[in-house]
Amino acid sequence: MLQMYMILAIVLLIPGPANSESLKLSLRESIAMALGTSHRIKAASSGVQAAQQNAAAVESRYYPGIFLDENFIASDTPTRAFMMKLDQGRFTQDDFQTSTLNHPDPRHDFRTAITAEIPLFVPSTAPARAMAVKEAEKEAAHLDAEQEEVAFQVFRLYLQARTAAAQAAVAGQAVADARENLRLADVRSRAGTGLKSDELRARSHLATLEQRLITANNDLAIARMRLATTIGLGLGSRVETQDEPLAFPLDASEESLMAAARAERRDLRAARTELERTDAAVSLATRAYLPTLGAVAGYEMHGSAPFSADNDSWMAGLSLRWQLFDGFGRSRERGRAAALRTAAGERLRSSQDEVEFQVRESLLRREEMLQRREVARHALADAEEAARLVARRFENALATMVELLDAQTALNQARATLQASEADAALATGAVWHACGIFLKEMR
Predict the structure, then answer these.
(1) φ, ψ dihedrals at 76, nearest 5°
(2) Is residue 246 helix, strand or coil?
(3) C-alpha closest to that of 167 among 217, 97, 231, 109
(4) What is the pLDDT along the chain (444 residues), one digit of tens a residue?
């Protein structure tokens, strides 16, 4: 039976086939790679480009519109035939004869025209442009927020992968210790100083730990794949973590962190930008009461062939348009814009309160995790000493197998708890930076 367990252990330690790409990266390398390859960031970047193009398109309303027209018409309708002759400069005295006026011959005309429409005063253009610019700023803030969020997500998953690796190592050590306990039980049983039940209990305990090792190794593989997916690597890729120290001191005071959060949080920046955009929307609705003024100028040619100039002419003019009544539609639109501005202001104040709460909560959680880490370190030292003493007593037949396995289980749990506490403490510091909107700045 012991040989079968040894063979099983060897099989567990043999690596599987290399069917996926594995990349070993440091924490900062992982974050830097994610910023360049993450699909979420690429999507947000495209959103910024779209908003900027929209702002440029709205700004183009300040410029004149220039049009080229080429029209062809053929008719024997008296009025149209008369005007075609007149436009082409082919009118003669004979065209005033009654028979010619009433029954003209069919004629055709090619009209070539270049027209410029120049906006001189369009009250809606300035606030519409301001709204488009603010929308582009919102998208830029969204891009920054996505970069911050992706970087923090990579940070969290990197710590999870490191914890999974540590848990797998702990599970492996637990299996090794269980094998040693089984060996001692077997030796005592052969010498006649131990019980057969102790040997059976040790084997059952070893089987349980081997099952946990299989699960731990699988959790490690999944954590590495999840990290690779978040970074933006190909399907099936894995990222192995490096055994680098992850100590993140936090020297800033709560007041300075609050000030940083108010200045750096992207959601607050987006909320402030949205408030400014609604101000522009109110201005747009108000300016709908004003008139518009435009100029138009054109040059046209008429001829019997395309783009020919049998005769030419020009024209220029001004156009003033003022809507005096629209059924109170503008008034309702202005009221709607004002209500949206009030809503945006309330959302901004709510976001500010939420950000302050998140910063304070993250600081309290960090203090909690640091204290739990210290407790876990002391607990591990005590568990190691307790396991050592019980193992020595068991060797001298002064302790039972149950006591030995209980001590070993407590040691395994203490090891796993410390590994998790180390990662939680590092994650808590990163969570403070994330809550303040300065995670990327601190990690760089």
Answers:
(1) -115, 15
(2) coil
(3) 217
(4) 333 333 334 333 334 434 456 788 999 999 999 999 999 999 999 999 999 999 999 999 999 999 999 999 999 888 888 888 888 888 777 777 877 777 888 989 999 999 999 999 999 999 999 999 999 999 999 999 999 999 999 999 999 999 999 889 889 988 988 888 788 777 777 777 667 777 788 888 889 889 999 999 999 999 999 999 999 887 778 988 888 777 788 888 999 999 999 999 999 999 999 999 999 999 999 999 999 999 999 999 998 888 888 889 999 999 999 999 989 999 999 999 999 999 999 999 999 999 999 999 999 999 999 999 999 999 999 999 998 998 888 777 778 777 888 888 888 889 888 988 999 999 999 999 999 999 999 987
The Cα–Cα gap between 209 and 34 comes to: 36
Report the greatest alpha carbon distance in the chain.
142
CA distance 312 to 12: 93
Residue 339 CA from chain centroid, whole number: 30
253: left (phi over 0), alpha (psi -120 to 50) or beta: beta
The residues pairing with 320 across neighbouring beta strands, listed in sequence order, are 293
Place of tokens 């005769």: 311
Number of other CB atoms surrounding residue 304 within 10 Å: 13
Q: Token pair of 409, please? A: 């289980």
Contacts of 129 (CB under 8 A, 6+ apart): 55, 58, 59, 61
Whose CA is closest to 131, among 290, 340, 303, 273? 273
- 5: which 2 tokens? 């367990």
Domains of the chain from N-terminus onward: 2-37+123-288+328-443 (1.20.1600.10)
Task: Using alpha carbons, select from 416, 19, 427 the residue that is nearest to residue 237.
Answer: 19
CA 402, CA 259: separation in Å to the nearest integer? 57
